[in-house]
Amino acid sequence: MTTSDPNKMLKQLSKKPQKMTRFKKYNQGKQRSCGRKTASCTRCGRTGVGGFVGQYGLNYCRCCFREIATKLGFKKYN
After folding, report:
1. Backbone angles phi, psi at 21, to 5 degrees
2. Both 19 and 43 in a single domain?
3. What is the pLDDT of residues 32-54, one digit of tens each?
4. Of 13, 14, 40, 69, which is least surrounded by CB within 10 A?
């Protein structure tokens, strides 16, 4: 069973419960211990996919950092 669309694959497997359980067993996501997806913003909870400021222990996404940067003491230079 090969297909490029995972939703189509799950639709096909819904009619075969044994194959569906095996598919879910071997294709579910893993718990990560390191990498980009493990870091999340302390303010809004967004994962570190886009822009993430983890330096100096800040752990803010770029949106939250832009909002509170001046309160933290950062200055914007041209």
Report:
1. -65, -40
2. no
3. 888 877 888 999 988 866 788 88
4. 14
- 41 lies in a domain? yes
Number of domains in the chain: 2
**In a domain? residue 77:** no
Both structure tokens of 14: 């819904």
7-34 pLDDT, tens digit per residue, is 777 788 888 889 888 888 887 777 788 8
Rounded (5°) CA angle 7-3-49? 60
Whether residue 78 lies inside any domain: the answer is no
In the block, which residue shows the tokens 């400021």? 53
The domain of 64 spans: 37-72
Q: Which residues contact 61 (CB under 8 A, 6 or more apart)?
A: 41, 43, 44, 46, 48, 50, 51, 52, 53
- Which residue bears the tokens 């914007």? 76
